[in-house]
Amino acid sequence: MSQFHRRALLGGAAATAAFGALPAHVARAQAANTVKIGILNDQSGLYRDVNGPGSVACVRQAIQDSGVAARGVNVEVVVGDHQNRPDVGSTITRQWIDRDNVDVILDVPTSSVALAVNTIVRERNKIFLNSSAATSDLTGAQCSPNTIHWTYDTYMLAKSTGGAMVRAGGDTWFFITADYAFGHALERDTSGFVRAAGGRVLGQVRTPFPGTTDFSSFLVQAQSSRAKVIGLANAGGDTINSIKQAAEFGVTRRGTKLAALLMFISDVHSLGLETAQGLVCTESFYWDLNDRTRAFTQRVLPSMPGGLRPGMGQAGCYSAIMHYLKTVAEMGVPAARASGVDTVNRMKAQPTNDDAMGEGTIRPDGRRMQPVYLFEVKTPAESRGAWDYYKLLQTTPAAEAFRPVGEGNCALVRS
Amino acid sequence: MDEIFGIPAPLLFGQLLLGLINGAFYALLSLGLAVIFGMLNVINFTHGAQFMMGAFVAWMLLHYLGIGYWWALLLAPLIVGFTGVVIEKTMISRLYKLDHLYGLLLTFGVGLIIEGLFRNQYGSSGMPYRIPPELQGAWDLGFMFMPVYRGWVVIVAIVMCLATWLVIEKTKLGSYLRAATENPALVQAFGINVPRMMTLTYGAGVALAAFAGVLAAPIYSVNPQMGANLIIIVFAVVVIGGMGSILGSVVTGFGLGVIEGFTRVFYPEASATVIFVVMAIVLLLRPAGLFGRA
């Protein structure tokens, strides 16, 4: 909260100072031509490196790359730290919308927070561009005409990584699940694929979130179930600790496989290739995927915190803001600010295209569609330089990667 | 396979052992807290950050200077202990005459600042730190696979706890310390430099936290919030054991590690809360804690 207040105050002070220097009519014109983006994510906890300040850097890059300033559109950014708590996230969202005239809530990792924000944004008819939360309920039972789910979701992760593990012979599973909306959704979606492929789920253990650092008890329980695959339905620092401790307890040496159902490149960097090698993971972005992603990475790298390469959540923020600002420039600021639903519909009506995430489309239920990549983490010998971590195993076309539009139980697309 | 309460016995033994290992960390950390509170009457909320610093200094020694685990085990506590001495000299020593609350607020603030600085510099994912080659591998105990390193942690923790207890209860230095807590003016009158003793006590308590941090580095991800996750639990341990009681904090540390371990089998969702439930019950029945003097 303190960070949010401080940043909001600083932003306000800067804005006041800027207006103070301008003649009154220019200032009024600028205010009328301003859209305001609120980046709400984890600035201080276990998900900080997979979104946090890196998302802010990517958004600022998008504002620059979009060139909307030349077309008279002024963009303001505020940043908030939701500390992975739905109550904190809801309070910031309400303040931003009701008091600070924020138009777009962006990023919002931690599915429990994202679902709370989803409801508030819909009530106020603003825009919610979600990049970093995973629950597929955002385009399923809880879908909203004000929301676009941009980067990944539990269904696509489950199908890509889970499907690959089952095909490789991993037909019995035990889940270590973070005990909140995201973990539950990821476990549910993955179990669906395992069972559909003829496999069995032998058990699961729900780990308190946040605040679990020792996973050894859970790993030993998983091991004693004799499952062939231990599915890690968690993320960020939890995934890192799980994998590190699984190596310590020799889980993989006994032939059991680990399925890191949601893993980011910063997790691999933290683990080191020695520990992470051979793991497979699913992402919708990798900095070294093609010329466009490399060009994007080169541009944003100087402003990334601590030399991190952008991960998919952060690249998704870039992509979402590129598309949003393009739409705003076409509609004009007053029209784009008037109704969240109208702007989102306009965004859905045209394809997305940017350096980070390539080409994509947005479905009526709010799901953004793009190809999905299954990677394997390289061995230390295979890696040729800093952050050279992934080799591409498989590309799933958008139409096959995500949940079919009719199966999500979303009210927007029910016939 | 034999079962106890519907859980296979081997699994239960495994959890008992894992609980003891986690308890070793709780004991080491709460020991430092108990020493500082017992002697200085300061509730050291910077302890979690100092635990984290221990792990980070170990990582820095390896990363920047190529100094490995064994030297880190000695150097990191000294380095972090020295920062503790500086904090005590410049800040905490000014608060001895005031209410406990001031020390708590100061150390809490300092802890937040340290964590924030590390977070800005190193992010949240943490740094890789490998188990030293001499302690890699594992024993197959039949009922579970026991990493050598975790066995090492338990043994070292027990030795450290015992050594600290001996120093304070059985040596001349310890008797000075205990006397200075009771009546600093009288001890000073005997020609003993009480302020310096306080400073060194704080430094030693901090060094204990850093030592635990180095032990933790190969197991947990070395990240800025690793201490914040533990410190609240460790405070509960100290409160349950009895504020300032060294024996109490050690016994409670191991005991609660085991209780938490069992909760992870029977009702994993509650494993983060069970320690606080125990704390509430103990405070209701024995407000001074299990080993505290009312």
Topology:
The complex is a heterodimer of chains A (415) and B (294).
Chain A: H1 2-20, H2 24-32, E1 34-41, H3 52-66, E2 74-81, H4 86-98, E3 104-107, H5 111-124, E4 127-130, E5 147-149, H6 154-167, E6 172-178, H7 181-196, E7 200-207, H8 216-224, E8 229-233, H9 236-248, E9 257-260, H10 265-271, H11 273-276, E10 280-283, H12 291-300, H13 312-331, H14 333-338, H15 340-349, E11 352-354, E12 358-362, E13 368-369, E14 372-377, E15 390-396, H16 398-401
Parallel strand pairs in A: 1-2, 1-3, 3-4, 4-5, 6-7, 6-8, 8-9
Antiparallel strand pairs in A: 10-14, 11-12, 12-13, 14-15
Chain B: E1 3-4, E2 7-8, H1 9-40, H2 47-65, H3 69-90, H4 100-122, E3 138-140, E4 145-147, H5 148-170, H6 172-182, H7 184-189, H8 194-216, H9 226-241, H10 246-266, H11 274-285
Antiparallel strand pairs in B: 1-2, 3-4
Helix pairs in contact in B: 1-5, 1-8, 1-9, 1-10, 2-3, 2-4, 2-8, 2-9, 3-8, 5-6, 9-10, 9-11
InterPro entries (chain B): ABC_transp_permease, BCAA_transport_permease
Keywords (chain B): Amino-acid transport, Cell membrane, Membrane, Transmembrane, Transmembrane helix, Transport
Pfam families (chain B): BPD_transp_2
